[in-house]
Amino acid sequence: MSFIELRGVTRRFTKGEHTVTPLADVDLDIERNEFFVLLGPSGSGKTTLLNLLAGIDRPQAGTVSVDGFDVAKGSSGRLARWRARTVGYVFQRASLVPVLTAYENVEVPLWLQRLSRDERHTRVSIALEAVGLADRASHLPKQLSGGQEQRVAIARAIVADPDLVVADEPTGSLDAESAEGILSLLRRLREERGKTIVMVTHDPHAASYGTRIMRLDKGQLHETQGQEVAS
Ligand SMILES: Nc1ncnc2c1ncn2[C@@H]1O[C@H](COP(=O)(O)OP(=O)(O)OP(=O)(O)O)[C@@H](O)[C@H]1O
C-alpha cells in the first residue's frame, strides 16, 4: 500500500446552476519520502487536491488514504487529531500571528497537545534550528524578511514532526533568492528528515526540485516529462 492513495476521487463544486469538477475519478499513489510536485493552470484544482490529502476537505466519491488512514471517512474530531499529528501545511503567505514572536508562532500547533513547557521548548528549538532561524526566535514577524517569515511558517508546519508536508505555492510571494532557500529547505526535509513533500507550484524551476512531477488539467492528472515542465 502506498503512503498516499487516491482511488476514484471526484470533487465538484456547485454554485447556483454552475458546477465545476476539478477532480474527476482521479487515482494517485505517492510513496513515502517522495517530493511530489503538482503543476497545472490556475483553477485546475491543485489546492483542492492538497486539501483532500490534508483532510481539510472531503470528496463526493472515492477514497483518500494517508499512511493507512481513511481521510475521507473519519469523524471531524478524529480527523483534526490525525491532521495535527500527520500533516504540516505551508501556504503561499506565511500568515504568522503578528503579535507573537517567531518562537510563539512555531509553538501554536503544540498548544493543542498535552506537552510540558520543556517538551514544547525542545520541539520549537529543533524546528527553528531546522529552518536556520534559531537566532531569530524572539523577533516579531514585522522584524523578519518575507523569506524568513516563510521559514518560520515551515518551522510551524514541522514542529509536531508530521510525516507529510503539503505546500501550496510556498515560493509564490518570494523573490528568487528567498524562493531558492525555501525550496532547498523542503528538499532537505525530505533528504535528512524523511518527510514526504507534496508541493503545488506554477513555477517550472520550483518544480525541478521535485522527485516526481504531475500536471492537473481538466479534472485529470498527467505524467510530465522533463521538457514539458517548462511549457
Ligand atoms: N469552496 C469552493 N466553492 C466553490 N468553488 C470552489 C471552491 N473551492 C474551489 N472551487 C473551484 O474549484 C476549482 C479549482 O480550484 P482550486 O483552488 O483547487 O484551483 P488551483 O489549481 O489551486 O488554482 P490556483 O492555481 O489559481 O490557486 C476552481 O474553479 C474554483 O473556483
From TrEMBL:
Keyword Iron among record annotations: no
Any GO CC annotation of this UniProt entry: membrane protein complex
Domain ABC transporter: 4-231
Keyword set, alphabetical order: ATP-binding, Nucleotide-binding, Transport
CDD domains associated with the record: ABC_MJ0796_LolCDE_FtsE
PROSITE patterns xrefs: ABC_TRANSPORTER_2 (PS50893)
InterPro entries in the cross-refs: AAA+_ATPase, ABC_transporter-like_ATP-bd, ABC_transpr_LolD-like, MacB-like_ATP-bd, P-loop_NTPase
MF terms (GO), sorted A to Z: ATP binding; ATP hydrolysis activity; transmembrane transporter activity
Family: Belongs to the ABC transporter superfamily. Macrolide exporter (TC 3.A.1.122) family.
Name under which the protein is recorded: ABC transporter ATP-binding protein YtrE
Organism lineage string: Bacteria, Pseudomonadati, Planctomycetota, Planctomycetia, Planctomycetia incertae sedis
